[in-house]
């Protein structure tokens, strides 16, 4: 019986969290005019939160691994978006995003690393 009570409490804590919707870059969007990593600083991201990337057709957004983030490259396992208004749900743990267009824009700072923690327990 105790096992089921603990399981139920954990289930409710995980499933009662309402994800937060973030507009990446606020009014500037996904754009090199601001520091993307600076925009993310001070925010507390959780698995399940949604990042909305708004950008013009000169850019894109790609979900990459750590190596892709560090070296600014898109591999076969990367997921690329180019719609200009993309909603991406954060996975638990490290999430890496880069712009692969135009060439070298990522190296100039158009990239962002976010660590999404577990959703907070309900109160």
UniProtKB/TrEMBL annotation:
UniProt xrefs under Pfam families: Cu_bind_like
Phytocyanin domain ranges (all copies): 20-118
Gene3D superfamilies for the chain: Cupredoxins - blue copper proteins
One GO location term (cellular component): plasma membrane
InterPro entries recorded: Cupredoxin, Phytocyanin-like, Phytocyanin_dom
PANTHER family tied to this protein: BLUE COPPER PROTEIN, EARLY NODULIN-LIKE PROTEIN 22
Protein's name according to its UniProt entry: Early nodulin-like protein 22
């Amino acid at each position: 019986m105790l096992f089921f009570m603990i399981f139920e409490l954990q289930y409710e804590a995980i499933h009662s969290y309402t994800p937060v919707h973030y507009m990446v870059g606020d009014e500037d969007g996904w754009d090199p005019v601001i520091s993307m990593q600076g925009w993310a600083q001070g925010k507390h991201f959780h698995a399940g939160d949604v990042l909305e990337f708004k950008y013009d057709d000169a850019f894109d957004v790609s979900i990459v691994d750590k190596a892709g983030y560090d070296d600014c490259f898109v591999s076969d396992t990367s997921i690329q978006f180019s719609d200009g208004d993309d909603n991406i749900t954060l996975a638990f743990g490290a999430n890496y995003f880069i712009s692969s267009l135009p060439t070298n824009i990522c190296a100039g700072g158009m990239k962002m690393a976010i660590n999404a923690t577990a959703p907070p327990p309900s109160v």
